[in-house]
């Protein structure tokens, strides 16, 4: 399932991110803000129970989070900015990291780094990858999470190409994708069109 977050704040901030004139500082701030707004949507079905407490006025039953604990997993490197923003909303979440590169011969993603919370199987997992392009890395990262026992996985992206969405839907039909927009297509260099360029380079000022 794909949820496109059409909220006007998300769409406005995404347009600013797309603008080639937007510099590193503003791009980073926007990526963090969009990530928070995506998390608001991605986490809307977190379980609640009630806790009895006294306000300064009277006693009552009030909602508190319950159910599975959370894990945020960043796909390196661009996913880092998303987990760093989202962990401010859910500070008890554990954070994992997965790094992948594409083997130049097989063109398949190969993991060079994988550090996950030991109890990932017991946690609800939110994977962050700002750009869902071919879907190859995201699909491989999700597979390694499943191999580690994760069962309830949401993939959070800022932008997606239809090709990437199709790969995740084919490989992992159980995974919910939450994204700010699904663009037109991928170009011959694997960039999302119209897109926003290389998210990692724009976040870190590299090129
Ligand atoms: N990764 C990016 O950062 N941008 C794209 O357009 C595609 C993949």
Features:
207 residues, eight-stranded mixed beta sheet, two-stranded antiparallel sheet, binds uracil
Write the layout of secondary structure elements.
Blueprint: E1 2-4, H1 8-18, H2 24-42, E2 48-54, E3 59-65, E4 69-75, H3 79-86, E5 94-102, E6 109-115, E7 123-128, E8 131-132, H4 136-147, E9 152-160, H5 162-171, E10 176-182, E11 185-186, E12 192-193, H6 199-204
Parallel strand pairs: 1-10, 4-5, 4-7, 7-9, 8-9, 9-10
Antiparallel strand pairs: 2-3, 5-6, 11-12
Helix pairs in contact: 1-2, 2-3
The structure holds uracil.
Structure description:
With 207 residues, the chain is of the alpha/beta class. The protein has one domain (2-46, 68-204): Rossmann fold (3-Layer(aba) Sandwich), CATH 3.40.50. Helices cover 32% and strands 33% of the residues. The chain contains six helices and twelve strands. Strands 1, 4, 5, 6, 7, 8, 9 and 10 form an eight-stranded mixed sheet that branches. A hairpin with a 4-residue loop joins strand 2 and strand 3 (59-65). Helix 1 runs antiparallel to helix 2. It starts with a strand and ends with a helix. 36% of the residues are buried. The model has no long low-confidence stretch (mean pLDDT 97). This is Uracil phosphoribosyltransferase. Keywords: Allosteric enzyme, Glycosyltransferase, GTP-binding, Magnesium, Nucleotide-binding, Transferase. Its EC number is 2.4.2.9.
């Amino acid at each position: 399932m794909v949820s496109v977050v059409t909220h006007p704040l998300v769409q406005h901030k995404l347009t600013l991110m797309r603008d080639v004139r937007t510099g590193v500082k503003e791009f980073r701030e926007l990526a963090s803000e969009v990530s928070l707004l995506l998390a608001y949507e991605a986490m809307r079905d977190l379980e609640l129970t009630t806790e009895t407490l006294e306000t300064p006025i009277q006693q009552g039953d009030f909602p508190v989070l319950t159910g599975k604990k959370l894990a945020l997993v960043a796909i390196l490197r661009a996913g880092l900015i998303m987990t760093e923003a989202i962990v401010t909303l859910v500070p008890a979440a554990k954070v994992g990291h997965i790094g992948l590169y594409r083997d130049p011969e097989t063109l398949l993603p190969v993991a060079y780094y994988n550090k996950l919370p030991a109890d990932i199987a017991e946690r609800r997992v939110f994977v962050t990858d700002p750009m869902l392009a071919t879907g190859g890395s995201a699909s491989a990262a999700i597979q390694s999470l499943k191999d580690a026992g994760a069962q309830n996985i949401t993939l959070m992206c800022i932008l997606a190409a239809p090709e990437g969405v199709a790969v995740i839907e084919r490989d992992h039909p159980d995974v919910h994708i939450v994204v700010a927009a699904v663009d037109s297509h991928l170009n011959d260099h694997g960039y999302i069109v119209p897109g926003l360029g290389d998210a990692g380079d724009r976040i870190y000022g590299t090129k």
